[in-house]
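Exercise 7. Predict the joint structure of the components listed below.
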Amino acid sequence: MLDIKVIRENLDWAKEKLATRGIKPEQLDELVAIDAKRREAMVQSENLKAERNEVSKKIAEAKRNKEDAADAIKNMREVGAKIKDLDKDIDELTEKQEYILLRLPNFPADSDPIGPDESYNEEVRRWSEPTKFDYAPKAHWDLGTDLNILDWDAASKVSAARFVYYKGAGALLERAVYNFFLDENTKEGYTEIIPPSLVNNDSMQGTGQFPKFTEDVYTIVENDDPEVPRNLTLIPTAEVPLVNYFRGDIIDGKNLPINVTALSPAFRSEAGSAGRDTRGLIRMHEFRKVEMVKVVKPEDSWEELEKLTHNAEHLLQKLNLPYRVVALSTGDASFTSAKTYDLEVWMPAQDTYREISSCSNCTDFQARRAQIRYRDEDGKVKLTHTLNGSGLAVGRTVAAILENYQNENGTVTVPEALVPYMHGMTKITPEVKWH
RNA sequence: GGAGUGUUGUCCGAGCGGCUGAAGGAGCAUGAUUGGAAAUCAUGUAUACGGGUAACAACCUGUAUCGAGGGUUCAAAUCCCUCACACUCCGCCA
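Solution:
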């Protein structure tokens, strides 16, 4: 959530910034007008409340002295009614203001490439060269099916499209990848967390998924009493439980930055992406992801974003997977982010780079929504900044390994870094078919 | 799932419908004392949102906040309702 004060005091600047993210300036005018009305009503209400408190004190005194206070009580009854009306107005105005405020995206950083969509993203750097083959490389979904380590048919029977079974060496590979990620992240100073996979509405709002993106997620409805929904949602990313771990907290500044990492399932409805990436592991309703989250002091967040990005890159480097780093344009970056670097891994069969990690500095946007604060050396309480990045998407990593490490005979060489995690297995060969 | 108890500031803990932003401790900070420290004494020790003076900081003032939300009342930490969470006992269960 943006700071209404910042908008109020720098209206033109705010309009300009948010215009690059597709927000119409009139919306901010409306917001500021509501805010002005709200504050006006507050002044009136607060003056009346001050009067009421004053008179109430006198009534109390009179009662103690056994004097009559009937007139004052009668007057205050009217004042009370007025206050009630005004407070109702204030509530309505606050609600209107929140409605807009909760749906405005974060201010983009000055360094962000400006543009409405991904075509304005800027490549920052490349690591290694796209893997070369002297034959036509297979797509990972074919490799997975032919090796009998990934089974989409069974998953669509048992669950639905965009679900998958991992089998044998495939399951082992998935497990190897995330254990490797967790170990590496832990070595880099991240504390491992195992978070819950269902979270409440306050949490979804705290990290910015709600109220705007309710269609993108799966929410649990308890059938026996539809009147009282439990309001638990399957997490679309571990970012939600990791950041909300600190919701409402005042952290001792000595303990910042806090770095945490977690493996979790990620559930996404993928509403609106019908027809895109229908094959393979790229776009699933359920996948596993290792996430990294940082809670930092505001003055450190830009440096921490670079560190976070490098931590994610380090994983790809150790797996020897070619990738590039892309700075997202103002129009392409996520709702909560001020600046995002995407890591895109080379996918030979598609002859292109595909997103495998997204590292964002959310500045104080989530911290304000979730009220995550810290006490600095002077004892003052301030909002923190939060950052998050995938380290990394596990399914997509498996896909990248299959494609980049494939051999002409259809087997897949295990990346050196993963061999210990694969119990010494160096090559993935076909699994037994059961039918 | 059933029955009961509880949730107060950084922590512990008191609290009769008005004099309670909240007793009393502890902790922390500053000052005094000391050659220095301990002990002792004194003072201070919330956050949010308004308004004003002023504007890298700050000060004055109002309002709100005692798990959350609603209600009763001139007035609610205190009474009523709903919910969340914690603990205890019973039942069930990986």
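Discussion. The mean pLDDT of chain A is 92.
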